[in-house]
Amino acid sequence: MALTGLDIYKKLPKTNCGECGFPACLPFAMKLAAGQAELDACPYLSEEIKEELAEASAPPIRLVTIGKGENVLKIGEEQVMFRHEKTFFHPPGIGVIVEDTDPQEIIDGKINQTREVKFERVGQILKSDIIAVKASSGDTSKFVSVVGKVREALDLPIILMTDNPEIMKAALSICAEDKPLIYAANNENSEAMANLSKEYDCPLAVSAKGLETLSPLVEKILALGVKHLVLNPGSENVGSALRDLVLIRRAALKQKFRPLGYPVITFPCSQAEDDLMETTLAAIYIMKYGGIILLRNLEPWKALPLFVLRQNIYTDPQRPMRVEEGIYPIGNPNETSPVLITSNFSLTYFIVSGEIEASKIPSWLLVLDTEGLSVMTSWAAGKFVPETIAPFVKRSGITDKVKHHKLVIPGCVAQISGELEDELPDWDIIVGPREAADIPVFLKQWAA
Ligand code: SF4
Q1: Within this chain, do residues 119 and 47 fall inside the same structural domain, yes or no?
Q2: pLDDT: is 55 or 107 the higher one?
Q3: Looking at 280, 313, 346, which one is the last position of a domain?
Q4: Can you give the residue range of the structural domain that contains 19?
Q5: Does 318 reside within a domain?
């Protein structure tokens, strides 16, 4: 079990020097126990005590990194049961399972789907971020060959799936430098798999039937010196999977039960009979609390709703999605092109820029930083008002790009036009449409 604040306090120097940024050792100990302070902040701890206390200050759900390079997948480190309490941090990896017994065209199809099925939404690319290769054949060379093919075709983290340590070792010998997830240690092979995890420095999945079997197995593997784990509670159906996922999250966050403080891998691919049910299960695991979600295939109709759901669940509910403040050229504008202004709420930006694009009238779009609020909300909050718009227009550099001084403001804030003209006496303020959908018609009448 994790140490309490008082347990930690007993190990501190108790000089209350304040160098850690806290007024005394006790509040520092309390914050450390709550995971809200860094151990290194106290310069007076011996290496031995540091090691002991590191356990207490570690996040209740450990961060696990799979893969390397820019496509690395990070999962875990979640701090709350419910998104509205704070935010969820690391979106689950979504990917397909390729079996080494699959016909070649199926393997190629899954690789192609993984590479090609992607969507852009509010400025982000939504795509698959992991792929699993399963040794269903029991044939070492076949498995290694498929792993090699997948690795060659995709720059994505890989999960190697076999219970056989010899087959696993053969696959690791060709791809360990990519830091794949080793799946999985169980009651029969735990020592051999733990040794492979240590030898090749790769994260290890631990699989058991039920939480009562899983937690002692995790403790055994931790004692063998493996630190980066992913859990599979072996749930047989969606009911038990949902129960296990909630219990694991609760045990880690509320009871600080270390053996269950790791991200969880889920298998809607093997729990559903058809693609529709598989997609439904995957959606459930995105919301509660899958760390990796494996599918049979990545058909676009299945991938799009799952990717969008994941994006929505893993955005900070207290921080609206936003784009950078600045000048956005749309359709290669020139010095006579229209200049429009809007707020930096992502949805507003993408709707407005989409309508400008649809008008086929090249334009300059000025985007003011309104802290991610929409036009009306930011106007009401005093962030999209003449006092903020005028200085932005002056510093933006738009006067170097156009020879006219006409600025189109959203129709829903028509009431600021007079005051804005006072703030920007060199500019004509033109009230644009209230609705973004009317922008194309409006722009077609533009004359600089
Ligand atoms: S720096 Fe260390 S010794 Fe000083 S108050 Fe903080 S915890 Fe105590």
Answers
A1: no
A2: 107
A3: 313
A4: 5-57
A5: no
CA distance 241 to 252: 16
Residue 204 confidence (pLDDT) above 80: yes
> What pTM value is reported for the model?
0.79
What is the average pLDDT across 152-168?
97
Ligand 1: residues with CB < 6 A are: 12-13, 15-20, 22, 24-25, 28, 42, 44
DSSP element (H, E) containing 329 = strand 326-330
The reported pLDDT for the residue numbered 318 is 79
Q: Whose CA is nearest to atom 2 of ligand 1?
A: 42
What three-state secondary structure class fits 330? strand
- Ligand 1 centroid–CA 136 distance in Å is 55
Same domain, 48 and 68: no
Count of structural domains within the chain: 3
Atom of ligand 1 at shortest range from CA of 44:
2
Helices (H), 319-385: 346-359, 375-380
Q: Do you find a cis peptide bond into 184, omega within 30 degrees of 0? A: yes
Is 125 or 4 the better-scoring residue by pLDDT?
125
Percent of the chain at pLDDT above 70?
Answer: 98
C-alpha 29 to ligand 1 mean position (Å): 9
For residue 362, is pLDDT > 70?
yes
Rounded to the nearest angstrom, the distance between the alpha carbon of 61 and the centre of ligand 1 is 26
> Residue 123 carries which DSSP code?
T
> Burial letters for 331-360: b for 16+ Cβ neighbours within 10 Å, e otherwise?
eebeeebbbbbbbbbbebbbbbbebbeebe
Same domain for 344 and 302: no
What's the CA-to-centroid distance between 48 and ligand 1, angstroms? 16
Judge if 373 and 427 occupy the same domain. yes
